[in-house]
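Researcher: Please predict.
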Amino acid sequence: MFVRYVFRYYMGRNETPGDAATLQEADRVYVKSGGSFKELVVSLLTSESFLYRSVQAQGAKK
């Protein structure tokens, strides 16, 4: 659950089914690193979900 909260904070949105691979990899990195927050953040910020995210214009309707 912690990984999801960090994902939501850094992505600025809730996760979607398309983010499953990113969340699984982030969790794997977090566990493998012995719970390193730094490694978790690096994993998220280098993921395709982060690198190829789209920014919605402020006030734009969904």
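Model: Helices lie at 2-11, 20-32, 37-45, 48-51.
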